[in-house]
């Protein structure tokens, strides 16, 4: 009954089977057939020509994307509570060799064009001030909120107007797509996104993420940076195999639907207690310390997000049967309050 994080979930059987099938002699690094076919596979998914790099972590995917979009002397606009700011131990600055994160505000950790303008419009031109070169958004946000295609497109239009690169941290991109019922192209390149960190590990993968460049010309330098950063794995076919398995039969969407449905069930049980709308597989629940202790005493595991707020994350392998006991326990709290 663990709802602490979808990172704690097991890898799904299809991914494990793909790893076993890839356990044969093949060309090293990214020269194998599985790695070499990723561009075609993801180009079909996104209905445009893309270049794809496999990477072992979301942090590496995010930061290599930012390094491709921003020079060491530039700045990246992101939300003050974005994962790249709050949870990556300075990795963006490390990978970019010094680029500065320019922090913006916004409800639910979401950026808007006005919030971005509030940051960049006050920066004077000249050598004394860090000039903005890119914008990064997280979809879904740290509070589980999804940017719609229209919201992304509004930011994309501003980025194009100001000559800024546009990155999307999609650690839970699948959950956003499922919640919105939109197409991957409409949520990314058609809305102006240049690079997407496409998360699979939280959604049933074992140890592989995809860095998708909608500007394929950025990929060659990113491949060099991947090697230099120590992320070019010698047996890359095992990472590529996971990505292919997740795309096969839209497994990535099926897993996200299960997780989102479980979170929706918890949200329904938590009427009047939600700190944020439920738009993905995360639920932010307002509870007292005594109520949190009561839930834990029943065997439920979750994360203390802020004073009076806990985060519950439903994983791909937690169906209604697995989630129902926690939903009932939350409903009982509301009844006794």
What does this structure look like?
The protein has 337 residues and is α/β, with parallel strands linked by helices. Helix content is 43%, strand content 16%. It has 15 helices and ten strands. It has helices at 13-21, 33-36, 38-46, 58-69, 83-86, 91-96, 113-120, 149-162, 173-180, 184-187, 219-228, 237-247, 251-269, 289-297, 320-336, and strands at 51-55, 74-79, 100-104, 131-138, 165-170, 195-198, 209-213, 282-286, 303-306, 309-313. The strands form two sheets. Strands 1-7-6-5-4-2-3 form a seven-stranded mixed sheet, with helices on both faces. A three-stranded antiparallel sheet has the order 8-10-9. Strand 4 (131-138), helix 8 (149-162) and strand 5 form a beta-alpha-beta unit. Helix 9 packs across helix 13 (251-269) and helix 13 (251-269) runs parallel beside helix 15. The two termini are 23 Å apart.
Topology:
Elements: H1 13-21, H2 33-36, H3 38-46, E1 51-55, H4 58-69, E2 74-79, H5 83-86, H6 91-96, E3 100-104, H7 113-120, E4 131-138, H8 149-162, E5 165-170, H9 173-180, H10 184-187, E6 195-198, E7 209-213, H11 219-228, H12 237-247, H13 251-269, E8 282-286, H14 289-297, E9 303-306, E10 309-313, H15 320-336
Parallel strand pairs: 2-3, 2-4, 4-5, 5-6
Antiparallel strand pairs: 1-7, 6-7, 8-10, 9-10
Helix pairs in contact: 1-12, 4-11, 9-13, 13-15
- State the separation between the terminal residues, measured CA to CA: 23 Å
The beta-strand count equals 10
Global geometry: globular
H/E order of the elements?
A: HHHEHEHHEHEHEHHEEHHHEHEEH
Report the helical percentage: 40-55%
Q: What is the SS-derived class?
A: alpha/beta
Radius of gyration: 20 Å
Q: Spans of 5+ residues with little confidence (pLDDT < 50)?
A: none
**What is the typical, i.e. mean, pLDDT?**
97
Main β-sheet, spatial strand arrangement: 1-7-6-5-4-2-3
Number of helices: 15
Q: In what range is the share of β-strand residues?
A: 15-25%
Main β-sheet, in a few words? 7 strands, mixed
């Amino acid at each position: 009954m663990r709802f602490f994080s979808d990172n704690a979930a097991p890898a799904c059987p299809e991914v494990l089977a793909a790893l076993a099938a890839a356990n044969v002699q093949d060309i090293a690094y990214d020269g194998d057939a599985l790695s070499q076919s990723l561009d075609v596979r993801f180009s079909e998914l996104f209905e445009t020509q893309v270049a794809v790099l496999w990477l072992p972590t979301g942090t590496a995917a995010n930061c290599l994307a930012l390094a491709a979009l921003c020079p060491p002397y530039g700045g990246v606009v992101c939300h003050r509570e974005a994962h790249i700011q709050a949870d990556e131990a300075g990795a963006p600055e490390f990978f970019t060799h010094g680029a500065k994160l320019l922090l913006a505000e916004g409800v639910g950790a979401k950026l808007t064009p006005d919030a971005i303008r509030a940051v960049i419009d006050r920066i004077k031109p000249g050598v004394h001030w860090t000039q903005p070169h890119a914008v990064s958004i997280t979809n879904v946000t740290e509070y589980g909120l999804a940017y719609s295609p229209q919201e992304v497109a509004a930011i994309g239009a501003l980025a194009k107007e100001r000559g800024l690169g546009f990155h999307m941290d999609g650690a839970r991109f699948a959950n956003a797509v499922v919640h919105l019922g939109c197409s991957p192209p409409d949520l990314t390149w058609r809305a102006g996104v240049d690079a997407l960190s496409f998360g699979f590990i939280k959604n049933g993968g074992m140890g592989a993420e995809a860095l998708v460049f909608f500007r394929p010309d950025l990929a060659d330098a990113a491949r060099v940076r991947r090697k230099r950063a120590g992320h070019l794995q010698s047996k890359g076919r095992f990472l590529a195999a996971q990505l292919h398995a997740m795309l096969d039969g839209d497994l990535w969407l099926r897993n996200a639907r299960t997780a989102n449905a479980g979170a929706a069930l918890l949200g329904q049980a938590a009427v009047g207690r939600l700190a944020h709308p439920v738009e993905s597989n995360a639920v932010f629940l307002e509870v007292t310390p005594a109520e949190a202790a009561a839930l834990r005493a029943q065997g439920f595991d979750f994360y203390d997000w802020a004073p009076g707020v806990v985060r519950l994350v439903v994983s791909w392998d937690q169906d209604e049967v697995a989630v129902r006991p926690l939903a009932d326990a939350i409903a009982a709290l509301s009844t006794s309050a």
